[in-house]
């Protein structure tokens, strides 16, 4: 759980630093600066764990602005800016989360669409020979990356809600030594025995 652990640790460090500065007699400007940093850290932590219904609340295609999306959803994992001025913001939902939202912003700075990237339809779009960047643009940040030196391949995996008997599964993309897709696969989520 690196995202939550990292955010929780950052929040604890910010609180400890604020307490230490207060006890050492800092001036008001230093305390205000620390309070701002603490607020930003707390907001980033909350954005990373808040339920989807709150994450997406009030965002309307054609109406909401890029600034409103950032205020509501927080800092994206990545932000791609295209030649026409449009953007795609990536929001993976926690470490090993079952959803990754892609937020498309038009050249006019308004929300175009919010789509959930981890779906069977999107997985079917991954093609042999595509680059890692192509796959990342389509599916977002993988939850796991494994390098197999003897096989000379790297495997990116996303946990997703497959439905059916097991509910959750992994979709895996295998990259050859050239960094291009060589195959895809599916694997079960292993539970404690």
From TrEMBL:
- Source organism per entry reads Paraburkholderia silviterrae
For this UniProt record, give its keywords in alphabetical order, as a comma-separated list: Signal
The domain of life for this entry's organism is Bacteria
In the record, which residues are listed under signal peptide? 1-19
The name of this protein is Beta-barrel assembly machine subunit BamE
